[in-house]
Description:
Elements: H1 2-33, H2 36-39, H3 44-47, H4 53-63, E1 70-77, H5 84-100, E2 110-111, E3 117-124, H6 131-144, E4 152-156, H7 157-192, H8 199-223, H9 229-260, H10 264-291, H11 299-330, H12 352-362, H13 364-379, H14 400-411, E5 420-425, H15 429-437, E6 442-451, E7 454-461, H16 468-480, E8 485-487, H17 489-523, H18 527-550, H19 564-592, H20 597-624, H21 632-664
Antiparallel strand pairs: 1-3, 1-4, 2-3, 5-7, 5-8, 6-7
Helix pairs in contact: 1-8, 1-11, 6-7, 7-9, 7-14, 7-20, 8-9, 8-11, 9-10, 9-11, 9-20, 10-11, 10-17, 10-19, 12-13, 12-20, 12-21, 13-18, 13-21, 17-18, 17-19, 18-19, 18-21, 19-20, 19-21, 20-21
Amino acid sequence: MGAAKMSARRRRAVPWLVLGLWIVVLAAVSPFASKLADVQRDRAVDYLPASADSTQVARIQDRLPGGEATQMVVVYHRDGGLTAADRTTAADQIGRIADEHALTAEPRGIPSADGTTVMYPIASTEPGTDEKARDRLVNDVRDIARGGDGLGVEVGGEGALATDAAEVYNSLGGPLLYTTAGVVALLLIVIYRSPLLWLVPLGVAGMSEFLARAVAYGLNQGFGTSVTGQSGGIMTILVFGAGTDYALLLVSRYREELRRNERPYDAMAAALRGCGPAVLASSGTVAAGLLCLLAADLNSSRGMGPLGTVGVLVALVAMLTLLPAVLVLLGRRVFWPLVPRYGSTPKVRRSLFAAMGSSAGRRPLTVLVGGAALLGALALGVLNLPGSLKQEDSFTSKPDAVTAMGTLAEAYPERSTQPVTVMTPADRADATLAAVRGTEGVDSAREGRTGDGWTEISVIARHAPQSAGETATIKALRAELDGSYVGGPSAQQLDLKDTNSRDRMIVVPIVLVSVLLILIALLRSLVAPLLLVAAVVAVWAAALGIGGLLFGPVFGFEGTDPGLGLLSFVFLVALGVDYGIFLMHRMREESLAGAEPVTAALTALRATGGVIASAGLVLAATFAVLTNMPLVQLVELGFVIAVGVLLDTFLVRTYLVTSAAVALRRKVWWPGALSRAPEPPVPAERQPEPV
């Protein structure tokens, strides 16, 4: 009796101890969670490849007198042609800018051939690498340079574009968090049909996001992990999406166990034993896939790996500790009005997934071939993807800097309006300057600052920014100038594209091998892991193909972000295998319990189909939140991942994986011991097509 009382006392104490520990941890990290925004960096060098020429140029510029230069172009334009008064206004305003700010050189106006436009390139070392100081400078220039009465004035250039992009990224945090939480809350209300239950996983996810921000800040301070607006936003999405998925699986199993166990504590312990291994394996797979991004050379991709992993692992810990503790403390009443009573049996409802599974079970080869053909047809849309995204096309609504770039492109078709920067050893500056001027495609070049053994040369190409002609000029300069570095905005875009191509060649195989090895260890099979990996790769290709069919014709996007292929692949493979683990793990449990292959496959689908569908909807919805963001690259990434998750949930998991398992029967577990186990007889009504 005394031991029983002690055991009961411990059962009551454990949830309170877990809850208290979480409160202490959250209180301890609260000063650090709020600092993540302070270390977020969205300068070009924070996204650029580590080894590229343009990265070296940006780093050397930091060491020149005055530090990094913020470059802008002030554009004055009148459709009918600039008047004498317009030119006077422009000169006065530029003079005031020069008086109030430290510029690297005296601004010179460059009129267009048609007389409608004059541009003033200006550069200042006043902000250095301080992004907030850069934004103040750009906004001050915009306050001074104003038009009116038909005179249009715009401020463009690299510095202005960076300020506009930073404004967008800084605005993402609040709206992204609130929108994601709102979407998850709405879906949980629909799924649980309870006025209280949805609050529990949502609240735990919110605490997870808070803790993840603190851990991400610690990684930045301890290991220099890059934190950008993009990686921070993806981390938030993963905390809510993956965390809610784990909560759905746990709550579903907990509801089952409450009917078998009188005490909530015992029911939760049984639920954790039942679904814990699958949740641990699935989160481990996602984390392993994301950590493969550390092999990328692109700073933004490499930094996203650790931050995404932090989001997934923190969500996992919260959903396996804090969520169970809160649910046990609240007891059965948290499920009101659909309270699972001890000893009761759930109402038998006609299951959509049972009907789907029956069709896959009766004609597995037909379903498998038809589904594969559909995915293959959708994947052909990849051929319609637009070309690489240009800087001016990266916003869903054009800010002032992008409008300025458009004005310059129309007014100066015969030359570039965006300088290419060459960094050369100071003792070779004269020879390099001569070589630059002699390079085909160069319109003009002049020497700039010198310091720390390097000299800066500003080059104007004869072709429009990011055009094929300017790209050829940049490549010619790099080939001609041995020992020098060629950078600038257009060179950065070229390096981003080239490095993403290189990263795909390296990261994709690493992701596939890592995920495959984890699946082999978990499922003790070779065929089943290969089946799951092939399925998620097909889903990725189909989702990207759907993007190709819609991005240009429907969304009106002028290009595709160079990193879309790699990032969408990593996320879809890692997250798609996540759901495959839920299904195949349950299928293996049924097979080990003695069920014949067809019964095992259909039982696993019925048991996990609903929770996988709910989890897929939540995850797709959280990534779909990105489609409401003002940056094209985020819209494209969110769209492809959301579509891929839906395809994976309702087509691949439900039909293709199930039909393949039915068709292969015990062979799906080859070469494990389960593949050699004798099969029970199959009921006549479930005899599938022969393989």
